[in-house]
């Protein structure tokens, strides 16, 4: 018999009330829910089919059904004959009991009352990828209709929200809004209401939810600024403080007080005027004796000023009247977006109806339509005597409305934990839970009753203490949507969480360069014996530390896992200690993309077996890629890359010489045409092979038309022998599993409304787009003895003996807040104002308000995700994070953390470290200046262990030392004499004959030669080429850089027609305009052309000589082959040569001699001599190249500085 706590027993036994059970992590909420159901069935004699139990997942429903079945069987064995008939009846009813997800319940409702909503009861649920394909087709159809109608509003929407090259951003926006509004009971009505908000009057605007949200956000920031000014003033008034700052700081406090008063009075116009009139006083000199305090005070004051300036420049960047004008101007277009979504919804619904399918959103909304009929609603209200909702914190408004339709006055039982609500991205609304949490009270007269389950039966005392300490400090109603007080704190309830080293660890990997080794801080009661290997910690040696941050963190965790395996853990099942196994350890991370794969690879290299939810790599597997190419060729042979891939594959085995022969025989555009030409013109063995290839492709194409896709794919795998071939390859078991998974996908495709090979290929392509990729097939199960790597979301509801939380230094993903259009369930639509004619956009008050609120809600979600991660651990919790500069981070973390400061956090470490460092055991985290400890210490029962992994001191030196050490040890090894010993030693002692010149590059540019003084030979040998990430037409840089300006000026000087300069500056401007028209220049580049400098150059003596010269050469490239010793200072004599490359700006012939000119856009006001000296090296090489190539003397050399409008003659003997 289980010993229930008083709160658990109350939740199990209370009747005739609506109950909200706020169950903390590990408090046994599922056990309580199941026990209540069992008691209702066994003691209250209620049939199991009179209960509705709604779970979050199908797996949870199956587990609950299994638990109930076991409990009934147990009771059946112990009960008397009078009760056995009832229990047997429950077992027979259990299979059709309503224990399912809400979607399954909705499906039953629709099928039972399909006639009320005029829907075909034979519908099926669409596969997610199938639904995505249908959505795409419907969007194309809707946009095509809109382009044909060509309404001005639509065309303007395309200009405003479309992309530079297509309308994909607009279609994505429509889909985004459509998906978002599905969480509303009446989606289109909600959208229409929110679109009308853009047509509000000034009075409505001043009372709008947008402005209220803005005011609250501004108030929070002003209070933070006031606290900073107060702290600065208090420090300045201390005996050793900068007293000279007092006057300015007192004035600062008056300013922020006036702003707060104006805000509280509600006069926003007055507040705006006051904000715009702010002028902070300059600080007086504080004197050298107060320098340290003065810098701290000035830093706090600057932070406060930045807060106020941010309000002024970003939040209220224009008067309210102008903001309202922007909002009203957007109304026609926001309203037309509503029309587009209405049209899209109609087309999408019609398409689904024709195919006989529904998606998950349809299930909820059709169920709502059914239950809105009194007959259906009353039937379900009378059928279910009790309704149970598990994981209630993850419900949305639609699901809440469905439950409200079918519940009675006092039969609702909801269980959940708002601190574990982490599915906002699925449109879950934790506000529903919080509303009931506040409304439901423990009052005898109330029909709505709340029960708090705070006893944690999972975690050790040390973990519970640390979690309570951390979240008491950071989680609040303002940031976290819940006050973490005594009502919600965890209470220790476990009795078997025993671990030798149970204190919570915070491991920080410093990626800066402090030149130190590992440093470990322990709680006071622990005294390490050997500081060099405390608890088995091994510092990462220099040659083992990867450069990449993720890889380094993974390697650090791998070493920690290896140390954990030497410890023992208490096994509650056996009641004894046993060694830690791999399966006891889980590595949790916020997101697995890029991280899980790297961790898995590192763990495997360290000999640690692991199971990772990677969700990538499947479509890149060679066996899948090749087989998909075969399917593409069968569908359409005129695809060169898939065609050549299949021909070269083991399936057809064309050799490379044969492929060359086919290509050489024909100049056809496509490779398939070359295959056809070879077949037609030849009668050799290769032609026969090609005939056989084409014949088999044609046969398979015919078979694909009438065979089901899964049968067709399996036939291809077997008849080609490809399935067995993959088995014989390295990793054959894995490859076979991947091919079977593709066959399974084909079977799923066969159940959709889409048929045919072409559509299957499209299906797979859409699957790549929607899921990014798929995980490779699993041949290793998660129940094997492996370390599991998973996301925090997937760990929810699970528990593990040892939890390692990785990536706590990784920045939060806030991309959802950066879109042009933002959406919020309460505030509606927030769009930037875009003027397509003037080509500019500006933020609107609606978008600012929604952005602020979404930021707060996203941070609250991140805080709850951290709570979920910390409460998965039973015995040991280790948190690991990487920082770029630990010293700078320490100074940031030591600052007092208010609501505003917490809202500025960018990763988990920014929340964790400031709290942890306030404990005496974590003094190692404090900056060096805090010798007396933290100014705001926390004294509690927490045991924190701090491990700091510093970067290596000198990686190259350490690597060289290790190499020399190995060589010395090798030279001292005595090789036993044998017939091969001399040969063996000669091979291992071999050295490269040209080692002294191995770093000489094969070519250098003249610019690199000029820069030689700042680089050495090794740097040239390993200098990677510059890579232009984006093509020019995709560049979005707002300003021309100095380097780009120089390139633009050179382009103009190259293309100017020297015979059309008669009109001076006007003719230059005219030719620049022509260069824009011919797309030699862009409009933006043309704006930076200094026509005056060009005119003055050609009007100078040298310019006139150029205009009268018979032969003028511009932008002339050259290659010069010369000895390496002419460029590099070599320690040995060598005849090595290299190629010197360069481009000469301009030279011309005069009296059978050459005059050389180089243009420069450098600004040279004070260092003219240095600049001439630097560029003389370039001119020397230009002269050498010209004289070598043209066989003529260069008699004069000049530099022309556009910025100075100056021509400089360079000594020809330079």
Q: Label the structural class.
A: alpha/beta
Q: Judging from the principal axes of the Cα atoms, what is the shape?
A: globular
Report the helical percentage.
40-55%
Order of strands across the main sheet: 12-24-11-23-18-15-17-16
The number of distinct β-strands equals 30
Short description:
With 1214 residues, this protein is α/β, with parallel strands linked by helices.
Give an account of the 3D structure.
- This protein is α/β, with parallel strands linked by helices.
- An eight-stranded mixed sheet has the order 12-24-11-23-18-15-17-16, with helices on both faces.
- A hairpin with a 4-residue loop joins strand 13 and strand 14.
- The radius of gyration is 37 Å and the shape is globular.
- The termini are far apart.
- Residues 514-547, 954-958, 1017-1024 and 1026-1030 have low confidence and may be disordered.
Draw up the topology in text.
Layout: H1 6-13, E1 18-23, H2 29-42, E2 51-55, H3 58-78, H4 81-94, E3 98-101, H5 102-112, H6 114-117, E4 124-125, H7 128-149, H8 152-161, H9 168-181, H10 187-196, H11 202-206, H12 209-236, H13 246-265, H14 268-276, H15 291-315, H16 320-355, E5 357-358, H17 360-371, H18 374-383, E6 386-389, H19 397-406, E7 412-416, H20 430-439, E8 448-453, E9 455-456, H21 461-474, E10 491-492, E11 504-510, E12 519-521, H22 549-564, E13 568-571, E14 576-579, E15 585-589, H23 595-605, E16 610-612, H24 622-635, H25 640-648, H26 656-664, H27 671-681, H28 685-706, H29 709-719, H30 722-728, H31 732-750, H32 757-771, E17 787-791, H33 792-795, E18 800-806, E19 821-824, E20 828-831, E21 833-835, E22 840-842, H34 845-870, E23 873-883, H35 886-893, H36 899-903, H37 908-916, E24 944-949, H38 955-971, H39 981-988, E25 1003-1005, H40 1006-1010, H41 1017-1021, H42 1042-1055, H43 1065-1077, H44 1083-1086, H45 1091-1099, H46 1101-1108, E26 1112-1123, E27 1137-1150, E28 1153-1160, H47 1168-1190, E29 1194-1201, E30 1206-1210
Parallel strand pairs: 1-7, 1-8, 2-3, 2-6, 4-5, 6-7, 9-10, 11-23, 11-24, 15-17, 15-18, 16-17, 18-23, 25-27, 28-29
Antiparallel strand pairs: 12-24, 13-14, 19-20, 21-22, 26-27, 27-28, 29-30
